[in-house]
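Our consortium's second objective concerns turning raw sequence data into structural hypotheses that experimental partners can test. To show how far this objective has progressed, the report includes one record in full. It was chosen at random from the queue rather than selected for favorable results. The single chain below, 106 residues long, was entered without modification.
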Amino acid sequence: MKVLKGIQEAIELRLQRQSVAVLETARKVAKCVTYLHVHGCTVQQVVIRPDYAVIDIDQPSEWLKGSIAVRRVRGDQRELQMVTKVLDCQVQWIVREAHPLLRREG
């Protein structure tokens, strides 16, 4: 029983530390969402994990630049998933563009 009690205490301590980390990340996200909102971005989704956050937004204006993380083709369009860091949070969005080589003849 002593061993089980020690394991339970270790798990509770780890969960408590994890909760504190999630709370700190949530504070960062709140600042980042406010910043994005002030700059005209529409936030679609937020994922918060300890020490890590991902914010999905609609396509921003030219002020926000990102790198291509994923390329994929959907029908006659090419989708580019763009990614950047804003206030220590990962921000990502999808850019859709028609591609002449993917156009369907009909």
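The partners drew two points from this record. The CA atoms of residues 7 and 13 lie 10 Å apart. DSSP finds one helix and five strands in the chain. Both points have been shared with the crystallography group to help prioritize constructs.
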